[in-house]
Structures are given as structure tokens and as C-alpha cells.
Amino acid sequence: MRRGKTFIISGPSGVGKSTVLHALFADWNDLYFSVSATTRAPRVGEVDGKDYHFIAAEQFRAMIEKDAFLEYAEYVGNFYGTPKKYVDEAMEAGRDVILDIEIQGATQVCEKRPETVRIFIAPPSWEELERRLTARGTDTPEKVQKRLLRAKVEMETAGNYDYFVINDTVENAVSELRAIMCAEHCKPNERMNQIMNQQ
Ligand code: ADP
Ligand code: 5GP
Predict the structure, then answer these.
(1) Quick check: CB of 135 below 6 Å from ligand 1?
(2) Is 84 in the pocket of ligand 2 (CB under 6 A)?
(3) How many angstroms separate the CA atoms of 98 and 177, rounded?
(4) Is 138 within 8 Å of 106 (Cβ atoms)?
């Protein structure tokens, strides 16, 4: 059986990563979404264990000490981390894995696992990013400003990514993501292995 691939999705807060990923997952059962642990408080509508594992700072520190994270990072005053165990189990079961993580975490994963595919999601314009972040209504104006400042740094590093998707409409972004994931499974090594393993 083929081993799954890991795809990192990064992009500025408010660009629409969660929205696009919900649409991608709606008709793709065989994908595994890595549920991160975070010390941030849940937003209205977020479900513990589905959107994030919402945990206290002490619990987060204990997980770091147990080496339970594939990566972790601090982002605008809170900690976020990817539990390693479930990612490995999903990949071994042949499922592709999606990590919705920011750029420091992406760098850590790629240092450990260089075969990981990195996809950056960008807004169609700066004004539209600010509009989406504000319209979401989940952050105070100060937090929106902090997230926008961070977004500038993130946009500058996007050139290191393997792919760049512009989320103008959710449909376009989803179809580009699908195309990228499909192309990544058409690389010669994987295809040759498939053929060789049939003999
Ligand atoms: P992120 O997960 O990147 O922080 P969200 O998925 O929470 O972003 O989206 C931020 C806001 O932008 C939400 O209110 C969402 O409905 C809206 N949004 C997402 N994608 C689009 C799009 N293509 N066009 C217009 N609004 C969008
Ligand atoms: P939010 O608070 O808007 O849900 O997420 C803030 C940022 O944290 C986003 O850029 C998101 O991709 C990132 N993030 C979510 N989970 C993780 C994680 O496990 N690790 C890292 N490094 N970043 C994460």
C-alpha cells in the first residue's frame, strides 16, 4: 500500500484557510486533517477535538517535554502544535495528511521531513485580507492589527513554498489544491514504486 503524503497549508490569518479546507474535506473522505493543540481560547462555533484540542499552557509544556509534537510554535501570544502520533498513523495507513500551520512550524516539519509539500494560500489583495479578518468578527481590533503585521512577514516568506494558491473564490482555491495534490502523486518515484510493487 502507498504511504500518504503530508501537505502543509500556510497563509495569513483570515485568508480563508479553514473555509477552503472545509470545502476540500466535504467530498474527500480519505484525507486526514491534523487537529492541532493550542493554548488559544475557542472561538464561537469551534469544537474541541475537531477544530483544535484546546489545552492549558501546562498541558502544552508537558507535551513538549514528552516530545509529542512534530512541531510547535508561538503565534500572536498563544502556542500551537501538531501531535506527531496521529500524523504518523494516518500516513502509514496510506492517507494524505493536511497540516494547517504557520511558517515557523512549516520550517520545522520540512527540516525533519524534507519530502513534505508546502502550499501557501494568499489573499487576492491586502484590502481583502483586512476586510475578511475584520468581517470574521472573532478578534479585537488590536488582535486584527497584530495578525495583519504578522501577515506581512508571512507573505515575505511565501517564495520558499512549493505552491502558491490565491483564495479569490473558494471554488478556485479548492480546485487548485486538488490539482496540486493530484500532481504530487504523479511524481516518477511514487508511480515507479506502484508498478514495481505489483510484480
Ligand atoms: P483562516 O482560517 O485563514 O484564518 P477563515 O477560513 O476563518 O480564515 O476565513 C476568514 C473569513 O473570510 C471568514 O469570514 C470566511 O467566511 C471568509 N472567506 C474565506 N474565503 C473567502 C473567499 N474566497 N471569499 C470571501 N470570503 C472568504
Ligand atoms: P488561528 O488562531 O487563526 O486558528 O491560527 C493562527 C495561526 O496558527 C494560523 O496561521 C494557523 O495556520 C496556525 N496554526 C494552527 N495550528 C498550528 C500548529 O499546530 N502549529 C503551528 N506552527 N501553527 C499552527
Answers:
(1) yes
(2) no
(3) 11
(4) no
The string of pLDDT tens digits covering residues 71-109 is 999 998 999 999 999 999 999 999 999 999 999 999 999
Alpha helices, H only, the chain: 17-26, 57-65, 84-92, 103-112, 126-136, 141-157, 170-184, 188-198
The tens digit of pLDDT for each residue in 128-177 reads 999 999 999 888 999 999 999 999 999 999 999 999 999 999 999 999 99
Distance between the two ends of the chain, CA-based, in angstroms? 13
Measured CA to CA, the distance from residue 109 to residue 96 in angstroms comes to 15
Q: Give the distance (Å) from ligand 1 centre to CA of residue 38.
A: 20
For residue 80, report the distance from its CA to the centre of ligand 2, in Å. 6
Q: Name residue 80's beta-bridge partners.
A: 38, 73
Whether residue 13 has its Cβ less than 6 Å from ligand 1: yes
What Å distances lie between residue 127 and 12, 134, 135, 156, 187, CA to CA? 13, 11, 12, 17, 37
Q: Which three cell numbers stand for residue 33?
A: 486533517
What are the residues facing 166 on neighbouring strands? 122
C-alpha 87 to ligand 1 mean position (Å): 25
pTM over 0.85: yes
